[in-house]
Amino acid sequence: MATYPGRVRIAVVGAGVVGLSATAALLDRGADVVCFERSPAPMAERSAGSTRIFRLAHTAPELVELAAEAGRAFGRWARAAGTPMLDGSGCVITGTDLAGRAAAMAAAGAAYEIVDPPPDLLPARLVPDRALVDPAGGVIDVDAVRAFLVARTAAVVVHEPVYELDVTGSVRSRSGTARFDAVVVAAGAGTSPLAAQVGVHTPPALEH
Length: 208
Known about the structure:
By secondary structure, this protein is an alpha/beta fold. Helix content is 30%, strand content 22%. It has a four-stranded parallel β-sheet with strand order 8-2-1-12. Strands 4-6-5 form a three-stranded antiparallel β-sheet, covered by helices on one side.
């Protein structure tokens, strides 16, 4: 695990689940972090809700590996918080890209099974001919994740919108301009216009 003994100063823009996760990880590594959030409460916009599906069944091996690491991180958070965050009930995937997902999972060493689903496996009127079972998938308890991350990062979250970034690490928010060694932009719909200010171009439309 990388650490920052020189107290590297890092700004995180956005306190959704990605921004708070980054902030918590940086705090764990000893960085001096400020997390900016325009909303009155963290994880109140696109990260809001009580549950989310978790799966390893992606179409690229590197995404499968990242999802597996995310699952291990949920386990670490759960142990630290003393409450489950990922139920591990498994996930059933259907659709036209099962072969691609299976190949990616196989390349990443993740367990899976292609099955002919019995009628009681899926709550659907039309049961597909084939399905991929991802035994490591399940449901994320977003409320538990939110409670843990908010408590871990409460001391460094500043509820101010960020208006401007530049390549020197300056961040202009409502209260003025501050200088940082690095900036992480995890601002949801606000990511593209902020990133464009420093020459980083991202897709303007968000997709799940």
